[in-house]
Design goal:
388 residues; alpha/beta; Aspartate Aminotransferase, domain 2; Aspartate Aminotransferase, domain 1; 2 domains; three-stranded antiparallel β-sheet; 13 strands; 38% helix
């Protein structure tokens, strides 16, 4: 049997949904994008939702709209997908890494305040793998220091912090629709915000800085006149083809989240006796969306002295699982260990020891909507039999 790390599962109705914009002739940002945005706001509770081309462009637009630029600093978790840091670099800013809590893989809020300088402008907390970052103290620190908060909620679909959906705490929230995510449009992203003025600016910036969209212009009294451009914007618009697919999936949004939670619960139960495998944390008041199922491989206590040995053992275990037809991945990467950031900022792996440990000792197991009982049983059997 072959079990992938993730697999896209679409209904026939969802597949057929993309034909509507193809038949209508409206392929660019239009009525389907507007519908998808409204459905996203209804699910998350966000006041405004703005569809864009990816979570990376959602993060980029958010920082740009907030006036982030050269010389400014942004605090970024050291363990996250590289895009969280890259958008800071793209705007000429400086990335200031903060270590993570190894229990949750999220930003360690106890280290956050010491990272703030006179140049800090924004905090970029990440709701990694579907577990919410600790937003209450993050927001308190941000307000105390007059900082913006841009939530990287790429993995955050269905994730809640004390009942409130992630992406609705900071100035903006940024979501991903990559195929490994619960809702997918192939590539695509969404920005959420409760700020009317910021929402209007984000909508302009995604569309070349135009004062109105093509759809608004075509529905207006003089559709033949072009819009004004108050901003020098970008072309980061989602197409109606993508939005039709995303919007169709929203009809079963709760079902998709529940399925992932059910699968994770089975893993939790079956692996509960494995002392060498730490499964995802359960935190009171936090609802995990399980974009993935990240574990910490710990055949011995994880420490700077043991990381190299554990990493070799983990990689050998991943090899054995791959030979059995089971795909795994490191949970994600420690960005400060990647060549660009390591060389630019003169960083060492041990500068952020928890991120280093997560980079070298984590493993994500297959979990996706549509995973069969047989596939999951096969993964469980091999995890138990092939590791220690």
């Amino acid at each position: 049997m072959n079990v992938p790390i993730a697999r896209t599962s679409l209904t026939e109705e969802e597949i057929q949904s993309v034909l509507a914009p193809l038949r209508s002739g409206w392929l660019v940002q239009g009525p389907k994008v507007r519908e998808f945005e409204e459905l996203w706001s209804a699910f998350t509770g966000a006041k405004h939702s703005i569809a864009v081309t990816s979570c990376t462009t959602a993060l980029h637009l958010s920082l740009a709209a907030l006036g982030f630029g050269p010389g400014d600093e942004a605090i970024v978790p050291a363990f996250t997908w590289i895009a969280t840091a890259n958008v800071v670099e793209h705007l000429g800013g400086k990335v200031v890494f903060c270590d993570i809590d190894l229990n949750t893989f999220n930003l360690d809020v106890t280290q956050l305040a010491e990272k703030i300088t006179s140049r800090t402008r924004v905090i970029l907390p990440v709701h990694l793998f579907g577990l919410a970052a600790d937003m209450e103290p993050i927001m308190q620190i941000a307000r105390k220091n007059g900082l913006a908060v841009v939530e990287d909620a790429a993995c955050g679909f269905g994730s809640r912090y004390r009942g409130q959906h992630v992406g609705t705490f900071g100035d903006t929230g940024c979501f991903s629709f990559h195929p490994r995510k619960a809702i997918t449009t192939g590539e695509g992203g969404m920005i959420t915000t409760g700020d009317d003025a910021l929402a209007a600016k984000l909508r302009r910036l995604r569309d070349h800085g135009a004062a109105m969209t093509d759809l608004q212009r075509h529905l207006g009294a003089r559709p033949y006149l072009l819009a004004d451009h108050p901003d020098a914007g970008y072309n980061q618009r989602m197409t109606d083809i993508q939005a039709a697919l995303g919007g169709a999936q929203m009809a079963r949004a709760a079902e998709i989240v529940a399925e992932r939670q059910r699968l994770a619960g089975i893993y939790d139960k079956e692996f509960s006796a494995l002392g060498w495998l730490k499964t995802p944390a359960h935190i009171d008041g936090l609802t995990h969306g399980y974009q993935s199922y990240p574990c910490l491989f710990q055949p011995e206590i994880v420490s700077p002295a043991s990381v190299v040995r554990i990493n070799e053992a983990r990689n050998n275990w991943m090899d054995r699982l791959q030979k059995a037809g089971i795909s795994t991945r490191p949970a994600t990467h420690a960005v400060h260990m990647l060549t660009f950031y390591r060389e630019k900022y003169g960083l060492r792996s041990e500068d952020f020891p928890n991120a280093w440990a997560a980079n070298d000792c984590s493993i994500s197991l297959p979990l996706f909507h549509g995973m069969s009982d047989a596939e999951q049983r096969y993964v469980i059997q091999n995890v138990i039999e092939t590791a220690i």
